[in-house]
C-alpha cells in the first residue's frame, strides 16, 4: 500500500484543523447533546480555546535525536509537532490571547492567523495579550520574535508572575524587549481572576516545579458556559497542595502534563526532572466516573513519549481508560 506524500499529509492535517473548527461551530449551535453550548451570539461567534502545539519544550523531533522514535518526524514534516501552546479566541470581538510563546511561535502565530484572522489594521502580532506559565525555554523563548530583529512589536501585553517579571527585566535579550517597549509587562497574582473582556476571564494558579528562574503556574480559562484548565508542567501530583481530581471536577476540559509516559523513558535520572508519568496519572484517575476521565487531554509530550506515535499501544491504553491526547488544532468552545 503506497504512503501519502508530504504534501498530502500536510493537507490532511490542515483539513483536520478546519474540520475541528467547523465541528466546534456545529456543537455550539446545536441543542442538547454532549458538549453543546448555547451561545448568546450566533453560531461560530462563541469564544474558544485552540491547541497550537502538544510537544515538550524541544518539540518533536527534538534536536540531536537520531533514535528510531524520532525518524518519522525527520522523514516527513507532517509528523512533526510544535511545542505546547494554546490560544484563547473571541471571534465576536476579534480578540486573541496566547498562552506560552514557544520556539515555534512563527508557525503557531501563522496557524492562529489562518484559524481566526486578526483585526484589520492591527499591527503584528495582533495579540491582545500573552500569558506565560514559567521560565523554561519552551514556554517563553518565542518572545525573541517580538524584538526589533523580527516583528518589532509595540506594547504587547505580557502577563507575568513576580519572579518572571524580575527575570525578564534583568536578563538579556528579554530586558531589551521591555526597554524598547516591544512588550508591556503586566503583573499577575495567583488566584486572581483577570477579566479579558465581558465574556472571557483567565486565572493563574501556582504549582510545584523546578522553579530555577520563575514561579510555575497553570491557567483556568473561564467562558460564558464552560471552562478549561491548562497545566503543561508540574512535579508529581503528590507535591501539589491541591488534588488533581478537584481541578478536573471544576472544569470541562483539562489539559494536563503528559511529558513522560513511564519511568525509564530517557537515559537520565528522571528524578532530576520530575513530572507525573502518564501511567501514574491514569492509575490515579482510573476510578473516577467516565464523565470526569473524559475531560483529561494529555499535552506537553516529550519526544520519547509513545503517545506521539499514532497507533501505539500506549495511546490505545490511554483511550481505553477513557482519557485522551491533545491534538494540534483541536478546539474547545467556551
Provide a short characterization of the protein structure.
By secondary structure, this protein is an alpha/beta fold. It contains ten helices and 14 strands. It has a seven-stranded mixed β-sheet with strand order 6-5-4-3-2-1-14.
Account of the 3D structure:
It is built from ten helices and 14 strands. The protein is an alpha/beta fold and 334 residues long. The chain has a seven-stranded mixed β-sheet. The protein has a seven-stranded mixed β-sheet with strand order 7-8-9-10-11-12-13, covered by helices on one side. The protein is globular, with a radius of gyration of 19 Å.
Task: Draw up the topology in text.
Layout: H1 6-29, E1 48-53, H2 71-75, E2 85-90, E3 95-99, H3 105-115, E4 129-131, H4 137-140, E5 156-160, H5 162-170, H6 174-179, E6 183-187, E7 193-195, E8 201-206, E9 217-222, E10 227-231, H7 244-249, E11 253-257, H8 278-285, H9 290-293, E12 296-299, H10 313-320, E13 324-325, E14 331-333
Amino acid at each position: 500500500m503506497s504512503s501519502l506524500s508530504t504534501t498530502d499529509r500536510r493537507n490532511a492535517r490542515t483539513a483536520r484543523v478546519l474540520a475541528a473548527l467547523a465541528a466546534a461551530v456545529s456543537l455550539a449551535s446545536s441543542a442538547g447533546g454532549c458538549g453543546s453550548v448555547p451561545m448568546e451570539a450566533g453560531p461560530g461567534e462563541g469564544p474558544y480555546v485552540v491547541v497550537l502545539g502538544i510537544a515538550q519544550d524541544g518539540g518533536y523531533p527534538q534536536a540531536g535525536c537520531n533514535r528510531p522514535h524520532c525518524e518519522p518526524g525527520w522523514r516527513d514534516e507532517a509528523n512533526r509537532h510544535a511545542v505546547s501552546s494554546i490560544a484563547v479566541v473571541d471571534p465576536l470581538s476579534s480578540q486573541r490571547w496566547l498562552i506560552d510563546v514557544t520556539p515555534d511561535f512563527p508557525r503557531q502565530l501563522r496557524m492562529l492567523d489562518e484559524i481566526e484572522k486578526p483585526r484589520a489594521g492591527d499591527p503584528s502580532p495582533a495579540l491582545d495579550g500573552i500569558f506565560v506559565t514559567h521560565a523554561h525555554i519552551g514556554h517563553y523563548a518565542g518572545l525573541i520574535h517580538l524584538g526589533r530583529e523580527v516583528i518589532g512589536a509595540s506594547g504587547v501585553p505580557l502577563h507575568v508572575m513576580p519572579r518572571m517579571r524580575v527575570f525578564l527585566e534583568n536578563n538579556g535579550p528579554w530586558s531589551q524587549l521591555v526597554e524598547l517597549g516591544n512588550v508591556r509587562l503586566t503583573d499577575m497574582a495567583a488566584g486572581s481572576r483577570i477579566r479579558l473582556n465581558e465574556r472571557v476571564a483567565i486565572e493563574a494558579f501556582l504549582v510545584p516545579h523546578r522553579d530555577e528562574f520563575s514561579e510555575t503556574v497553570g491557567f483556568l480559562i473561564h467562558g460564558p458556559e464552560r471552562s478549561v484548565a491548562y497545566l503543561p508542567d508540574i512535579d508529581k501530583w503528590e507535591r501539589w497542595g491541591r488534588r488533581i481530581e478537584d481541578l478536573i471536577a471544576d472544569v470541562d476540559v483539562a489539559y494536563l502534563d503528559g511529558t513522560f509516559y513511564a519511568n525509564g523513558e530517557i537515559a537520565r535520572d528522571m528524578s532530576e526532572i520530575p513530572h507525573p508519568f502518564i501511567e501514574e496519572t491514569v492509575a490515579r484517575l482510573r476510578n473516577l466516573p467516565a464523565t470526569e476521565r473524559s475531560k483529561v487531554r494529555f499535552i506537553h509530550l516529550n519526544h520519547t513519549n509513545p503517545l506521539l506515535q499514532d497507533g501505539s499501544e500506549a495511546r490505545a491504553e490511554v483511550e481505553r481508560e477513557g482519557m485522551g491526547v491533545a491534538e494540534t488544532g483541536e478546539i474547545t468552545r467556551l
